[in-house]
Design a protein that fits this description.
By secondary structure, this protein is an alpha+beta fold. The chain contains 12 helices and 23 strands. It has 3 domains: about 210 residues, 3-Layer(aba) Sandwich (Rossmann fold); about 60 residues, no CATH class; about 60 residues, Archaeosine Trna-guanine Transglycosylase, Chain: A, domain 4.
Length: about 425
């Protein structure tokens, strides 16, 4: 029996009478979805893009066919492309503004940006990714999204747990998995499936879960999710975690969506499984609470800021609609944020909230991250036509009359980048990495 035949046999055994329904679903196109970034716009359907509301997220939509990554709403960070069932894990967390949250395996950022939307720029999100190249993508997506209370780190989960013991109100562990829920989207991946790969993933997930538990404060919530169907990576990992941690309690998920978990242990029906025949590609979600009331809550030290130069205060006052709650300055680089600037050393820090810009020769030069932030609008601004947008994205200088100085370049009145004007010409400051090549 080939590995593909072995996988199909496993799915038939797992699904029983629903197996034919699954086979039919696998012949259909993948379900496409988006989330409206409610930090930047209201959750209203976008004509030609939003087909109907998603059952898995309050600001999620089943998307129409067509390219999402070339839409203006994408460039401005007003939407995020996300497979619908993948949003259910964050929905299950029941987050509230002001919470401290950890996304332990965060790249490329779909769940981190969803968490940020729920926090509404209040509280703190630490988004960690162990692989440097993926951490770079995570940073780009967070920047476009505009969240102002996110710390991005690039570390092994063990290192994260050492810095943040008993710190977070909620932890998401969306662990690397065998990806069976991606086979409709990427049929070639099915040929790489094997029982050995499943077992290896399950062991790695179990190790990451151990570190996730350490990061939870008393009464904290842990949500474990995968995009795979194998019981070894899902219910079995939850069963083992509960056996090893009597302080954990498996909770029911108080949201519609998916089917009960497999009967692996008493209470496993509280887990949720989503299959390709249920308006998604596939996901597993379990929600647990740490009942330990004896562990003391950690308070981390704050970074000591250099004095904020008067040029920085003058620039921010002149160009932003409101002030960031916190500023931090180090070596002429200025950061802003909505949470205190905690010291996370020795973690490898990719981004600490919002890098606002740098002081150069006594002048403040704003960053792309500043103009993309979702908290404070940048002015003045220059609204581009569709033709001007394409030229701007190619890095060209634009002939356009507007106020002199630094200017937010906008499309549909949402910023996509910066330019500097002499009154008649906009000098392009769109990051080279994002330009059309």
């Amino acid at each position: 029996m080939s590995e593909i035949e072995r996988y199909d046999s496993r799915m038939q055994e797992l699904l029983g009478e629903r197996y034919n329904e699954y086979l039919k679903a696998m012949t259909l196109p993948p379900v496409r979805g988006i989330r409206i970034n409610t930090l930047k716009m209201d959750n209203q359907p976008i004509p030609g893009l939003c087909r109907k509301p998603s059952p898995y997220a309050v600001n999620g939509w089943i998307a129409e066919e067509g390219m999402i990554g070339n839409r203006n709403e994408y460039f401005s960070g007003c939407i995020y492309s996300q497979e619908p069932s993948a949003s259910f894990a964050v929905t299950a967390m029941d987050l509230k503004p002001g919470m401290k949250v950890l996304d332990l395996c965060a790249a490329p950022g779909s769940k981190s940006t969803q968490i940020a939307e729920a926090l509404q720029n209040q509280g703190l999100l630490v988004a960690n990714e162990i692989i440097p190249s993926r951490a770079k993508i995570l940073k780009e997506n967070i920047e476009r999204h505009g969240a102002c209370n996110v710390i991005i780190t690039n570390n092994d989960p063990k290192e994260v747990a050492l810095v943040f013991p008993a710190y977070f109100d909620a932890v998401l562990c969306d662990a690397p998995c065998s990806g069976e829920g991606m086979f409709r989207k990427n049929p070639e991946a099915k040929s790489e499936w094997s029982p050995e790969a499943v077992s290896a993933c399950a062991r790695r997930q179990a190790a990451i879960l151990e570190e996730a538990v350490k990061c939870l404060k008393p009464e904290g919530i842990l949500v474990y999710s995968t995009c795979t169907f194998s019981p070894e990576e899902n219910e079995q990992n939850v069963k083992t975690l509960l056996e090893q941690h009597p302080e954990l309690e498996l909770l029911p998920i108080d949201h519609a969506g998916g089917k009960p978990g497999l009967p692996f242990f008493e209470g496993s029906e509280n887990c949720r499984r989503i299959y390709p025949m249920e308006e998604g590609e596939g996901h597993f979600v379990a929600k647990l609470r740490k009942q330990d009331r004896e562990t003391a809550e950690l308070r981390l030290p704050l970074l000591k800021s250099d004095p904020v130069p008067k040029e920085v205060n003058h620039f921010l006052d002149a160009h932003l609609s409101r002030s960031f709650s916190y500023l931090y300055v180090k070596h002429d680089t200025v950061y802003g944020g909505m949470a205190p600037f905690i010291d996370v050393r020795p973690l490898k820090l990719i981004r600490h909230q919002v890098p606002l810009g740098t002081l150069k020769h006594g002048r403040f030069e704003p960053s792309h991250a500043l103009v993309m932030n979702s908290f404070a609008a940048f002015s003045p601004s220059a609204e581009l036509t569709e033709e001007e947008l394409q030229r701007y994205r190619r890095g060209e200088v634009l002939q356009k009359s507007c106020e002199k100085g630094w200017t937010a370049v906008t499309v549909q009145h949402h910023a996509i980048g910066l330019a500097k004007s002499d009154g008649t010409i906009l000098k392009n400051h769109y990051p080279k990495a994002f330009r059309i090549r």
